[in-house]
Amino acid sequence: MSLKKLGESALSEAGLPGMGLKLGPEVLRGTDGVWFTATGADGRTLGVLRFEPARVKAAGGVKRLVERTVAARGGLLPGTLPVLDLVEDAGHVWLITPVVPESGAAARTVALLLGSSPPAPPGGLVATGHGTQKPEKKDLKDGLPSRIIRTLVGLVLVGAVLGAAGFAAVQLRDKKAVPKVQISSISVHNFAPVQPSGICDASVDMVAEFTTNGGTGVVTYEWDIPAKNHTTQAVTGAERVSGKSPKVHLAWQLKLTGSGTVSATFRITSPGVLAAGAETASSGDLKYQCP
Description:
Elements lengths: L21 E9 L2 E7 L5 E7 L1 H6 L2 H13 L11 E5 L2 E6 L5 H12 L10 E3 L9 H6 L9 E2 L29 E8 L10 E12 L1 E13 L5 E12 L3 E9 L3 E10 L12 E9 L2
Parallel strand pairs: 7-12
Antiparallel strand pairs: 1-2, 1-6, 2-3, 3-5, 4-5, 8-9, 9-12, 10-11, 10-13, 13-14
């Protein structure tokens, strides 16, 4: 399994329309890649790193980078910047963070994600603009998205922004033993009630909710959603889960005409996290009534 690729020019100087991201000016440059500012759909300023492909390859490839990013999201690589997304586009891997980093924090994050020793600050990067590592108070209050990779798809495909590799299970190791997650059931539904006439051109938050033993582990999965020309788009991803009822979200951008039902199917592709006798997949339906 490999990181999901976007269109040839999805994340270019024009930004990533499917996620509402507009790429800004370059702020940091180093041997591992180039950092840019970006503006999110809600107007917040984000940091975006375009990794140097040769450095990703030398560090073990995309698979290893995704594994270490999952570990960072799970708190196993202290010192990294918070990570919102990781996407691949036109031969480049892009890291999206909630802040525009200073050179020291940027260098430390890249060194940890690529698996090298953290460099002494600053030095590894040359600043070409101004940034700040402190998010606004609103960011801290609102929290960070729970997904490692976000996706926006529809019957007219807007763009798939999920990626995954063959993930090794990541577990917290401390004084208390943490059991491996075992999923006994899956339920797929829309997070908030919607009317059939209210989803004709809208983003719907679909949720796959698990019943588990309360353990911790990395779940690799696949969303199957309708795409254009009556085909199905498989969107793969991975997420570290914990607790009795963890959830995985999918932001589904719908563009519908006429009336009928659309379905999103969630399927677990890492059988080791399933309890004995558990179903591997579940579907959620949405009725629509559109012009």
